[in-house]
From TrEMBL:
It comes from Chinchilla lanigera (Long-tailed chinchilla). The keyword Cytoplasm applies. InterPro entries: ARM-like, ARM-type_fold, ELMO_ARM, ELMO_dom, ELMO_domain-containing, PH-like_dom_sf, PH_domain. Residues 319-492 form the ELMO domain. Gene3D superfamilies: 6.10.250.810, Leucine-rich Repeat Variant, Pleckstrin-homology domain (PH domain)/Phosphotyrosine-binding domain (PTB), SH3 Domains. It comes from the Eukaryota. This is Engulfment and cell motility 1.
């Protein structure tokens, strides 16, 4: 007979005593269970005790999280969070340096637990830590020369505890004084500072900027880009990551009118070239967190183009009209015409109209009207002028080449530039906020100060080349744009390290090559529609689905490392989840760092029986996506979120590393629950495997026409004299 659902068998430790095996009734109050444990060891004042996990997390057991206790869990009897917080509050104020250091070390470790954090914060612990940072450090400045390691560790543990306590979101960031901000900023501004202190100071500054507008202004006054740059020139990638994170935070929270000014300062300080030299081209791999910060910087930089992208051209604005005149002048090198006679004015208008037609504008009389659509607005005109000035030979060649073709075969430079700019803005998602989970940065955009304009210049020449290869006419304009989009997207997926490499990738992706790729993909995904083939598909589809199901379950058995995210700041905290080989239990637990390879089952402290799973929900239906906050509103995060619902009001929340892992896990969990696998990945895998299986089975029928209907059954013969009896 199975044990009652509410009874959990655990082991409980107490220092100096043998561990005790006991059964916990989850229906009983936690205080009654603690009293029972204390009575077993003859300990008085049970209200001063609590239970906590005996693993590396040391998290306290509370009424809220007690349902996470599973059979076989090892617990530890320890002092209650309130008692512990009170003792540490007193110990960190000790006059003994050694005692203070040990207390701060314990505080830094315990502060990760929200239960302890709440008790310590209730004692006004945050204020005590900030006072220690503001004034306490001054007291020990004189001791630095003789006790530098001790002082460094003390400050490091103080800042670590502060970061962990603030990370729970219990205390508002708006409560901190200017003196505290100045002190934290001073740690960042010093040239020689302990790595751990610098790292935590940068993390605190990033959180201040992201979580409070008032603090953003104060931090911006204390920290300059020039003071942050030296940290990027070091060799510690973690410090470089936090430094770029602070720059991104300042960039993101800056008022619209300040962003361009900040971008100009970044350009003056040569931030791009420093990142390229010391981060991207450094002789070491770029980790996920650094890749994310580079992606955010890339997005924020391109978002500076949004203003021009959404600005319509004013046909009455002479300065804007002069840009169009300049495009015409560079292309045709017009000689100065007489300005006085009215006859010459008419002649000039006629000539302008002819030239604007050659430049490929839709509105030949008033080309300014072509730039009234947003996007791409004035950004398209900016790109055209940049191309004409910085790649003048290529610009003149394209314009004159097309103006000498027949009308129907000319590639309209003006119209093409406008559509191309709009397309590039869509590809680079100009104007969208950066995703919390994306790491998709492109090294080539860090190789030039005007990378978007150079990107455009390469692509407009590609468009002209593709137009010629397709022998396109004006009716084929949209087809050409689609081909160019495919060429650009395929080249970008290879992550070229420079614009020149991107250009050479495009050279290899000619229209002929695109046709070959399309033909190959069409053949691989060929959909046979004849009745016999459809019947064959129906027959073998269950086998293919079972194969996909087994692959999904095998991937769940291997497991995946998930990142813990919150709305306050991105963290290097991980947890791992994997399915047991018998497909009956999900093992999961926190990790200190991203694992290299699989994590063994026995190192994952928590378990969830598959039989207890009630449902799997995704996107907006997930409990952790219903909370408010910037992160929760992020579309890409919503698309990667899923939750396992079990027991009563219990859930296990996930944010997948990418779309592929999301599909693997949602498919695998649905398969475990006996439901259909509905992901895009399953549909693609099913189509691919079905196509391959059908082609394999039809190999012997190559070049044979398969009829739509089976051949008629012949009439019975008039006699069976031809039958030979083997007996």
């Amino acid at each position: 007979m199975p044990p009652p659902v509410d009874i959990v068998k655990v082991a409980i430790e107490w220092p100096g005593a043998f561990p005790k095996l006991m059964e916990i009734d989850q229906k009983k109050p936690l205080s009654a269970i603690i009293k029972e444990v204390c009575d077993g060891w003859s300990l008085e004042n049970h209200e001063y005790f609590a239970l906590q996990h005996a693993d590396s997390s040391n998290f306290y057991i509370t009424e809220k999280n007690r349902n996470e206790i599973k059979n076989g869990t090892i617990l530890r009897l320890t002092t209650s969070p309130a008692q512990n917080a009170q003792q540490l509050h007193e110990r960190i104020q000790s006059s003994s340096m050694d005692a203070k250091l040990e207390a701060l070390k314990d505080l830094a470790s315990l502060s990760r637990d929200v239960t302890f954090a709440q008790e310590f914060i209730n004692l006004d612990g945050i204020s005590l830590l900030t006072q220690m940072v503001e004034s306490g450090t001054e007291r020990y400045q004189k001791l630095q020369k003789i006790m530098k390691p001790c002082f460094g560790d003390m400050l490091s543990f103080t800042l670590t505890a502060f970061v962990e306590l603030m990370d729970h979101g219990i205390v508002s960031w708006d409560t901190f004084s200017v003196a505290f901000i100045k002190k934290i900023a001073s740690f960042v501004n010093k040239s020689a500072m302990d790595i751990s202190i610098l790292q935590r100071s940068l993390a605190i500054l990033e959180s201040m900027v992201l979580n409070s507008h008032d603090l953003y202004q104060k931090v911006a006054q204390e920290i300059t880009i020039g003071q942050l740059i030296p940290h990027l020139q070091g060799t510690d990638q973690e410090i470089q990551t936090y430094t770029i994170a602070v720059i991104n935070a300042l960039f993101l929270k800056a008022p619209d009118e300040r962003r361009q000014e900040m971008a100009n300062i970044l350009a003056q300080k040569q931030l791009r070239s420093i990142i390229l030299t010391h981060v991207i081209r450094a002789q070491r791999a770029i980790n996920n967190e650094m890749a994310h910060q580079l992606y955010v910087l890339q997005v924020l930089t391109f978002n500076l183009l949004e203003d021009r992208m959404m600005t319509k051209m004013d046909p009455q604005d002479q300065a804007q009209r002069d840009i169009i005149f300049e495009l015409r002048r560079i292309a045709f090198d017009a000689e100065s015409e007489p300005n006085n006679s009215s006859g010459s004015m008419e002649k000039r208008k006629s000539m302008y109209t002819r030239d604007y037609k050659k430049l490929g504008f839709i509105n030949h009389v008033n080309p300014a009207m072509d730039f009234t659509q947003t996007p791409p607005g004035m950004l398209a005109l900016d790109n055209m002028l940049y191309f004409a000035k910085h790649h003048q030979d290529a610009y003149i060649r394209i314009v004159l080449e097309n103006s000498s073709r027949e009308d129907k075969h000319e590639c309209p430079f003006g119209r093409s530039s406008i559509e191309l700019t709009k397309m590039l803005c869509e590809i680079l998602k100009v104007g969208e906020l950066p995703s919390e989970t994306c790491n998709d940065f492109h090294p080539m955009f860090f190789t030039h100060d005007r990378s978007f304009e150079e990107f455009f210049c390469i692509c407009i020449q590609l468009l002209n080349k593709t137009w010629k290869e397709m022998r396109a006419t004006s009716e084929d304009f949209n087809k050409v744009i689609q081909v160019v989009r495919e060429q650009v997207m395929r080249a970008l997926t290879t992550k070229p390290s420079s614009l020149d490499q991107f250009k050479s990738k495009l050279q290899n992706l000619s229209y002929t090559e695109i046709l070959k790729i399309r033909q190959s993909e069409r053949m691989n995904q060929e959909d046979f529609q004849s009745r016999p083939i459809l019947e064959l598909k129906e027959k073998i589809q269950p086998e293919i689905l079972e194969l996909i199901k087994q692959q999904r379950l095998n991937r769940l058995v291997e497991g995946t490392c998930f990142r813990k995210l919150n709305a306050r700041r991105r963290q290097d905290k991980f947890w791992y989840c994997r399915l047991s080989p018998n497909h009956k239990v999900l093992h999961y637990g926190d990790l200190e760092e991203s694992p290299q390879g699989e994590v063994p089952h026995d190192s994952l402290q928590d378990k969830l029986p598959v039989a207890d799973i009630k449902a799997v929900v995704t996107g907006k239906d997930c409990p952790h996506m219903k909370e408010k906050g910037a992160l929760k509103q992020n579309k890409e995060v919503l698309e990667l979120a899923f939750s396992i619902l079990y027991d009563s009001n219990c859930q296990l929340n996930f944010i997948a590393p990418d779309k592929h892992e999301y599909c693997i896990w949602t498919d695998g969990l649905n398969a475990l629950l006996g439901k259909d696998m509905m992901s895009d990945l399953t549909r693609n895998d099913l189509d691919t495997l079905l196509s391959m299986e059908i082609k394999l089975r039809l190999l012997d029928l190559e070049n044979i026409q398969i009829p739509d209907a089976p051949p008629p059954i012949p009439k019975e013969p008039s006699n069976y004299d031809f039958v030979y009896d083997c007996n």
